[in-house]
Amino acid sequence: MQSNLTKTDIKNKIENLEKYFSKYKNQSASKKLEEIKQKLDNQEYKIAVVANMSSGKSTFINALFGKEVLPAFEHATTDSATYIYSKPNIEKKAEVFFSDGRKSQIFTENLEEEIKQYAQKDEDCKDDKYKNVEKIDLYYPFKNLQTSSNEDFSITFIDTPGPNSTGDYGQKHKDQTRSVLNSVDMALFVFDYGQLDANLKSDEQGLWHTIKTRYEKDKNFEVYFLINKIDMAMKDNFKDVRNVDDAKKNWGIHEQKAIDKLKQAAENNGIKEPKIYTIASEFSLLDRDNISWDSPLESFQTKFKQIFENTWESEYKKYLGILNLEDNINNYINTSVK
After folding, report:
1. At what angle do helices 27-41 and 7-23 cross, to 10 degrees?
2. Residues 12, 14, 20, 24, Cα dihedral to 10°
3. How far apart are CA 285 and CA 296, in angstroms?
4. What is the pTM of this model?
5. What pLDDT score does 167 carry?
């Protein structure tokens, strides 16, 4: 019968062995114990967020934070990979590394504002000091996402560079994203509902190919497919709707069509029984962050109140999709991964 030991259990056994070898010297065994200890301390589970086109990745990650931390605009914004280390009650800070030989910078004050400046594309920077960023290490707690499994291993969340750059930067970003994909344990492949058809016809970034290759060769590699901005489907559902009864009949039609399209594309690329999630990142963020009185969230919620009445709140939370995704990642980490 196989025994599942926690990191603490193994460390206790190592300590007992070390006491034994302090009395009965064995350099080879002591060296092996030291190597095991280092491996235990360095165990890491890496999750990458990738996209073929501007898909609202930054807004999605901000929704996981429950606060606007990364820059988020309609165009591609991320110019470098951001490595997010998140634990409950972690001291919030960021270290920025540069490609032009400058010494790395550490920030603890005005962190959200500084990150927005350093994480954006060089062409959008108004000050040269924010340019030539190679990598950002961000220490910031997610709202609900599991970030350590009883300290058995650490989890690193990687926001890859924006895919819409052209020229030398475009190739650099493609290479960097594919490199990250080949080194992580899980990928969150994000699609924009409004660009889904174009996304599925083109693989300019080569992400489908990279994910398919990883999936076929590494049985431990996991991929979740996310359809972001799913709230845009409501416009398609309610295009010719005149009353609440018609809205009820049309509810969820285009959301399901999008899921079916992505499911077919994933299966065509060798991903069996793909895990697909629909996410309304903008409204998830508004729901979690401090919102202003004129936020569009209220009118968004009104649709649920009119259609679902007494059960509107649970349907609304389900539609946002963020809680379901977080729960499933947490469960996966605490079962299959651990």
Report:
1. 160
2. -170
3. 12
4. 0.84
5. 47
